[in-house]
Design goal:
alpha/beta, TIM Barrel, 11 strands, globular
Length: about 350
C-alpha cells in the first residue's frame, strides 16, 4: 500500500521534548511556619505539580487522619505529594536515635507514605562529616545498606521505593551508585540533588550522568564555584545566577529522567571554602579518582569570585525565602518552555 505524503511528513517530524513534572521541595521555604495545607495552597498558586515534603515537620506529623486530610487537599488541588525523612544511617552523626531504630523510623514512614499517597520515601545517609575517619563514607554506606535490606520486604509489599539523597556533601555519585546497587535497585533509587555535589567537590553534571538511571525524584538549585588560594569556594544561588551550567543540567535531566519530578530546592548561601591544597583535606576523599576531581577543578577555574549575599535578619528570612523561590520558579518555568519547544 502506498504511503501518503502526510504520513511521511508525520513520521519524519521530531519527537516532542521529554517532559518532567515541575515540583518544589518545601525546604526552600522552611521558615514560613505554615500548615501543610498552606504550603499546598501556596504551591498551587505557582503552578506546582509535585510538592516534596522532605521532612516530617513540613507535613505536620504522621497521624493517619491528619495525613488523609492532607492527601484530600492535595488531590483537590491536583498536586502529587512526595514525603521524606532525614538520616536512616545508624552510624551517621546526623542520625536521631531518640526517634527509634532506623528500621522503626522507616516503618512509620512506609505507613505514612501509603496513607498520604506518596510513591517514594526520601531519606539521607548524613552529611560531609560522615566522610571522616575512622569509619569514613564506606563504613556509613555499609550501615545504610544493612538497614535498607532489613526493610526491603516491607517497602516492596507497600509498592513504594526509597529515594536516597546525595545530601550535604555525604556521598559522591559513584558512592551513591554503589549504595543503591548493594541495597537493591528494585526498591532503592536516587533523590538527585544538583547543589550538594559541589559540597562533595564533584561536578554536578557528572553526578547527573552517573545517577540518571537510578533517579526517582530530585532537588534542583544553581551553584557558583571559583578558585581561592587554598582550593575552591562554592555557594548556592537562585536559579540562573550560578556558573555551573544549570540550563544544560535541566535540559539533560529532562532528557535522561523523563516523567520524574524536577523539584526546586532553593537555598541561597554564602561561600563555603574547600581547602584541597591541604593534605589533611584528602583524608575524606582518598578513593576519589583523579579524572573526577579534574572535572570539578575545570568548573572551579572558569568561575570568578563573588561577594556573599547580604545577611538577612531572622525576622526577614521567610520573605527572602519566598522571593528566592519565586524568582527561581519563574526562571525554571521559562527554561522548561524553551526545552519543550526545541
Amino acid at each position: 500500500m502506498a504511503t501518503s505524503l502526510g504520513a511521511l511528513a508525520s513520521s519524519a517530524s521530531p519527537a516532542p521534548a521529554p517532559r518532567v513534572k515541575f515540583g518544589v521541595d518545601l525546604f526552600s521555604i522552611r521558615s514560613q511556619k505554615w500548615t501543610p495545607f498552606q504550603y499546598l495552597d501556596y504551591c498551587a498558586k505557582h503552578g506546582v505539580e509535585v510538592v516534596h515534603f522532605s521532612e516530617i515537620r513540613f507535613i505536620g506529623g504522621l497521624e493517619e487522619e491528619h495525613l488523609k486530610r492532607v492527601r484530600a487537599h492535595a488531590e483537590k488541588l491536583g498536586i502529587e505529594i512526595e514525603i521524606g525523612m532525614m538520616s536512616i544511617c545508624p552510624t551517621s552523626k546526623m542520625f536521631r536515635a531518640a526517634d527509634g531504630t532506623a528500621e522503626e523510623q522507616l516503618t512509620r514512614m512506609i505507613r505514612a507514605a501509603n496513607v498520604v499517597g506518596s510513591k517514594i520515601i526520601r531519606c539521607v545517609l548524613g552529611s560531609s562529616a560522615d566522610r571522616q575517619p575512622p569509619l569514613g563514607i564506606e563504613g556509613n554506606i555499609e550501615s545504610t545498606v544493612k538497614v535498607l535490606r532489613a526493610v526491603r520486604s516491607r517497602v516492596m509489599d507497600a509498592g513504594l521505593k526509597i529515594a536516597i539523597e546525595n545530601h550535604a556533601g555525604d556521598m559522591q555519585a559513584r558512592e551513591m551508585k554503589m549504595l543503591i546497587e548493594e541495597a537493591g535497585k528494585d526498591f532503592v533509587g536516587a533523590c538527585l540533588d544538583s547543589g550538594n555535589p559541589v559540597w562533595a567537590i564533584e561536578d554536578p553534571h557528572l553526578t547527573l550522568e552517573t545517577l540518571a538511571p537510578y533517579v526517582l525524584t530530585s532537588h534542583v538549585r544553581d551553584s557558583a564555584v571559583w578558585a581561592t588560594p587554598n582550593g575552591a569556594a562554592v555557594a548556592w544561588t537562585r536559579m540562573g545566577e550560578g556558573n555551573i551550567g544549570i540550563d544544560d543540567y535541566v535540559r539533560k535531566y529532562a532528557e535522561l529522567c523523563p516523567g520524574k519530578a524536577l523539584s526546586l530546592e532553593i537555598i541561597v548561601t554564602g561561600p563555603r571554602e574547600f581547602n584541597y591544597h591541604d593534605p589533611k583535606f584528602w583524608e575524606a576523599y582518598r578513593n576519589m579518582p583523579a579524572w573526577e576531581f579534574a572535572r570539578f577543578v575545570a568548573l572551579v577555574q572558569k568561575g570568578t569570585p563573588r561577594p556573599a549575599p547580604p545577611r538577612v535578619p531572622r525576622e526577614d528570612a521567610a520573605a527572602r525565602e519566598r522571593e528566592d523561590l519565586e524568582v527561581s520558579i519563574a526562571y525554571t518555568k521559562e527554561l522548561l518552555k524553551k526545552i519543550a519547544s526545541t
